[in-house]
Amino acid sequence: MKFNIALLAGDGIGPEVIEQAVKVSDAVAKKFGHEITWRPALTGAAAIDAVGEPYPDETHEVCATSDAVLFGAIGHPKFDNDPSAPVRPEQGLLKMRKKLGLFANVRPTFTFPSLLDKSPLKQERIEGTDLVFLRELTGGIYFGEKGRRDEGETAFDNCVYTREEVQRLAKKGFELAMTRSKKLCCVDKANVLETSRLWRETVQAMEKDYPEVEVSYEFVDAVAMRLVQWPNSYDVLITENLFGDILTDEASVISGSMGLMPSASMGADIALFEPIHGSYPQATGLNIANPMATVLSAAMMFETAFNLPEEGQAIRDAVNKALAEGIVTEDLANGGKAYGTKEVGDWLAANI
Amino acid sequence: MKFNIALLAGDGIGPEVIEQAVKVSDAVAKKFGHEITWRPALTGAAAIDAVGEPYPDETHEVCATSDAVLFGAIGHPKFDNDPSAPVRPEQGLLKMRKKLGLFANVRPTFTFPSLLDKSPLKQERIEGTDLVFLRELTGGIYFGEKGRRDEGETAFDNCVYTREEVQRLAKKGFELAMTRSKKLCCVDKANVLETSRLWRETVQAMEKDYPEVEVSYEFVDAVAMRLVQWPNSYDVLITENLFGDILTDEASVISGSMGLMPSASMGADIALFEPIHGSYPQATGLNIANPMATVLSAAMMFETAFNLPEEGQAIRDAVNKALAEGIVTEDLANGGKAYGTKEVGDWLAANI
Ligand SMILES: CC(C)[C@H](C(=O)O)[C@@H](O)C(=O)O
Ligand SMILES: CC(C)[C@H](C(=O)O)[C@@H](O)C(=O)O
Fold first, then answer.
1. Quick check: B162 and A154 CB within 8 A?
2. What is the pLDDT of residues B203-259, one digit of tens each?
3. Is residue B90 in contact with ligand 1, taking CB distance under 6 Å?
4. What pTM, to 2 d.p., does this model score?
5. Which residue among the candidates B142, B161, B234, B280 is catalytic per the annotation?
């Protein structure tokens, strides 16, 4: 098969880790007889510097006409702590999500037996954890009307959801639950928020279409607790944009494998794949960043966007083998030999 | 001195744990020569059952004319999972906060060396944790306009903050930081929300009035992570209502001492003190609930509302002694002898 893949390397360590994912994907394409055309485009601080815009129209054009988007990371310290700067990398991210219609952010948190000791949690708490968040990504308070009144003395942000927005996200949640253990948790704050009540009633009405799925409803504050206490009690969780922002980040650190966690953002027409870690500016250019999360994001791309599970599995197998043989960057080296970003990428490509 | 204290026992285990706090407070009053008049009033499901209202006007009258409020817990399973029920206990809670003007919720998370093994976190992660959240409690999305449009198909919740609301909360944060390690963290989502940008600019403008306090600004998602990774890197944190709801609950489970964590909610004229745990319906009437969080809330009451630190310390000393001697309820008994709620209360009162 032939694929066009938009390649958004972004800032910081983005370009370095993306390079390894490209290498590994090319090895997969070669082995399975596919042909990939990579279509690089600017985004983030890099795009602001080059053309004054974090998500330029040309970049959107490239993404919208590709079969998938592979994304590195964005964010640069020069924009930090200045949330009022007129142009910021994050605005590009939000614009991209909205314009590409990426309404469902899929964030798995799973564990690697050999990495359990990296978790801040005790082993018996984290063992066996394998959960997936579906975070709504193009609605809610992120995109509602916001502004000031009273000569700037009052600020407001409006959180809005339509039943349809909830339905399309929940549908993905039910479908995912059907391929897993058939347990779905709807996370809301229905004891306080009207939008949460809409979420809850919408999901409740969909239950009858998925009689095999056991649905539970939990308040966001309770989930923030139980994620730390008994993360392995969860399977598929669905939630709105802001709750998802907070909870998926909380979930990402419990496994101890943050440097390995991939993610997908799915729209009706296209999907984007990226590591959950940030642009890690301090490590830029040092050849020390762990490329495995980006490489595993490429695995998700083969599986989800191209419906090629074997190709994805080939990547996962190579990563597992690298972990078993200690072909890892310094974050996972445990005092043993640390390989460079590029060397890990080379090894993975050679082991496809 | 003479004090009138409104006594809101509430639901579930509320009445049992409140009874112990009364006993211990009375012992303190006797020892230090104070006189307490307890003024019981209805709240929560108990109030709904009795008068059809979770925070009746008579209860408000009692609270508003007292020197402090001691609160147990509210919530009853018959209202669970039915966030659309016309009258719910939580509404009483929100009404009470608003009518009493309890704008600052103070939630400490600290550790007891003897209880570190109860934490889901590894010992080296949790050791030495001693942080306090100040959560804004009467503004934000909890109290903004909310409702439906488009024949119920669209729901909205408005989040609103004024500079003044931020200032009075932040002032408490700066003042608290001055009595501790002079480190203050402002938690927001200023890269996305206009209300967060107001929070950040307001706190930034106040920095000059507290030159000794070192202020940091962190995004809510980053804090959700670092709370699990390095909780002991935090000291005083200030944040808005919804973020505070999520993060204080997350923080409460990391110490392993949830059954011991007190809290205060402060207004301009009155303050309320309550354990952070819920009404724990399954344990109601079984004489097994841990009364220590409520007893320590009474300690906070003496210290904060009455400015009587010695009286508060007498309670803390008794609790520490009980922990050291194993006079604890089953949640802390570790397979050893478990005392009843009442027996722990009696012991604490006798050891003041
Ligand atoms: C950078 C920021 C706007 C973004 C978000 O809040 O969605 C990030 O935290 C994320 O989760 O991808
Ligand atoms: C019961 C609920 C309305 C309340 C809140 O969200 O404030 C509770 O979670 C709390 O934190 O006191």
1. yes
2. 999 999 999 999 999 999 999 999 999 999 999 999 999 999 999 999 999 988 888
3. no
4. 0.96
5. B142
Domain boundaries, chain B: 1-102+267-352, 109-258
* Residues of chain B contacting A224 with CB distance shorter than 8 Å: 224, 246-247, 249-250
Catalytic, out of B23, B118, B172, B189: B189
Secondary structure of B110-174 as H, E, C letters:
ECCHHHHHHCCECHHHHCCCEEEEEEECCCHHHCCCEEEEHHHCEEEEEEEEEHHHHHHHHHHHH
Categorize the per-residue pLDDT at B85 as very low, low, confident or very high, splitting at 50, 70 and 90: confident
Considering the four listed CATH numbers 3.40.718.10, 3.40.50.300, 3.30.565.10, 3.20.20.370, the one that applies to the domain covering B1-102+267-352 is 3.40.718.10
CATH topology of domain B109-258: Isopropylmalate Dehydrogenase (3.40.718)
Tell whether ligand 1 has an atom less than 6 A from the beta carbon of residue B225. Answer: no
Could you tell me the CATH superfamily of domain A111-260? Isopropylmalate Dehydrogenase (3.40.718.10)
Question: Where does residue B278 fall: left (phi above 0), alpha (psi -120 to 50 degrees), or beta otherwise?
Answer: beta
Whose CA is closest to atom 4 on ligand 2?
Answer: B90
Contact call for residues B111 and B150 (beta carbons, < 8 A): no
Residue pairs spanning A and B at CB distance below 8 A: 169
Ligand nearest to the CA of B80: 2
Per the annotation, the verdict on B249 as an active-site residue is yes
Question: Nearest CA of chain B to the CA of A156: how many Å?
Answer: 4
Q: Which atom of ligand 2 sits closest to the CA of residue A189?
A: 6
pLDDT at B256: 82
Task: Give the residue from B338, B149, B272 showing the smallest Cα distance to A195.
Answer: B149
Instruction: Indicate the DSSP class of residue A335.
Output: T
Whole-number average pLDDT of chain A: 95
Predicted pLDDT of residue B75: 86
Residue A10: nearest ligand to its CA?
Answer: 1
Same fold, A1-102+267-352 and A111-260: yes
- Nearest-angstrom CA–CA distance, A9 and A56: 14
List B49, B57, B80, B221, catalytic entry: B221
Residue A80 pLDDT:
66
Categorize the per-residue pLDDT at A210 as very low, low, confident or very high, splitting at 50, 70 and 90: very high
In the residue annotation, B221 being an active-site residue is answered as yes
Of B83, B141, B162, the CB nearest to A153: B162
Nearest chain A residue (CA) to B201: A84
pLDDT band at B83 (very low <50, low <70, confident <90, very high): low
Assign 3-state DSSP to chain B and report helix, strand, coil percentages, each to 5: 50, 20, 30
**Angle made by CA atoms B101, B103, B107, in degrees to the nearest 5:** 130
